[in-house]
Design brief:
Layout lengths: L13 H8 L2 E3 L6 E3 L10 E7 L18 E7 H10 L7 E5 L22 E5 H10 L17 H18 L3 H9 L11
Antiparallel strand pairs: 1-2, 3-4, 5-6
Helix pairs in contact: 4-5
Length: 194
């Protein structure tokens, strides 16, 4: 995704945006909005979109047979898509979606201002700021510190995200089932969601 710029036009991408939000279960009040679609091996939500294939000059490339614009499929992170769709900004490779309020990789609560009594959980950030936050939260490898709880590894994070996704997809917002699903997959000191 190095050269791909994610932009979501509310009019041109109306069906795509509706398809995205149909896969979101909104928690009450200031809780997370959980992605109930595909989850990648990194534990983050994944969303498939189609965009025009571009030539070296950045122009839409026509198909050789029909003359119509050649489309290319891209898989983007659900939090990143939520940011682009909500804030109507172009997200380049240097701009990342960071979870500021929560540390839930399948949270897509990226609205502007206060909504239903809560702030956005997913915000625009730089890679440097995001890596710094990962270190503070004990994710991303490195040397564990005895005074700091170690974050989940990539495989465990993906399993946790999929378990949480399955619960909200199948039962809606059910805190007891959500907590039971994640508690079965991680250490007791990290099991609580909220």
């Amino acid at each position: 995704m190095s050269g791909f710029v994610l932009a979501v036009d509310a009019v041109a991408c109306r069906d795509e945006v509706a398809r995205f939000w149909a896969k979101v279960v909104r928690g009450p009040g200031s809780a997370c909005w959980i992605w109930a679609g595909a989850v990648g091996d990194d534990g983050y939500g994944s969303f498939s979109i189609r965009r025009p294939a571009l030539d070296e000059q950045g122009r839409a490339r026509p198909s050789s047979r029909s003359g119509r614009v050649l489309m290319r499929e891209h898989v983007v992170s659900a939090p990143r898509y939520a940011l682009a769709a909500t804030h109507r900004v172009m997200l380049t490779a240097s701009i990342v979606a960071a979870h500021e309020v929560c540390d839930e990789p399948i949270c897509v609560r990226a609205h502007e201002g206060l909504v239903e009594g809560g702030l956005a959980h997913v915000v625009v950030s730089s890679q440097a700021e995001n890596l710094s936050q990962m270190g503070r939260l004990g994710r991303g490898g490195g040397t564990p510190r005895p005074w700091h709880a170690r974050g989940l590894d990539r495989r465990a994070r993906a399993a946790r995200s999929r378990a949480l996704r399955d619960v909200v997809r199948d039962y809606g917002w059910d805190v007891a089932r959500m907590e039971a699903a994640v508690a079965a997959l991680q250490p007791a000191e990290q099991a609580r969601l909220f």
